[in-house]
Amino acid sequence: EAPMALTFTCVDKFEASADPKCPHSSPQNELQTKENIESSECGAISTEAVDPWRFVTREQAQTACMKAGKRLPKSDEWYLLSVGTPDNSSLCNIDSSGVRQTGKNAECRSAIGVHDAIGNAWEWTIDDVIEGQFQGRTLPDSGYVAQVDAQGVATLTSDTASDLFYKDYFWSSKQGAFGMLRGGFYGSEFDAGVYAVHAQTLPTAAGTAIGFRCVK
Prior knowledge:
The chain is an alpha+beta fold. The chain is 12% helix and 25% strand. A hairpin with a 2-residue loop joins β6 (133-134) and β7 (137-138).
């Protein structure tokens, strides 16, 4: 675990994976995740060279973290733990056909040593986006990131990709209740990055490109 001095004491170095005591060490669908969550001995762990836990909703991810004595990060926490991760397809898994094992891209790590914050799998945060509102402000329309707040969340978007924000993309909707995913996934290409935010994903969504990591 990497040390942090914010609203948490440490963050998992690697993307969350399923504890070996879980019924399924590498869930391949939503049913297997459900069976893991229902097992009293199954929680999330952080270890190298295993499949990250995917096919998981936000609340399932939070449960898996809490069973390990941890929790999902808030958006601002996720941003700070990810800063310094290279936005580069030769170093991070952002331009491939599938997810890779944790830590496989050894150079895809942040300034504090967190691996794979960019790409591989989207990562849940605990935040809500309701009717286009996030923490008291209206999010911009979907587009390329052109300006961000202190949490690395877009305050301005554009139809033109910005090199200043590594061509990262922002997804948003003015209608609906959504969770917030960050970082991008293996097929995001240059849309992925520390400023890539998907604020248009139902918290009940689960799939091959959605994972998480825990903090405490």
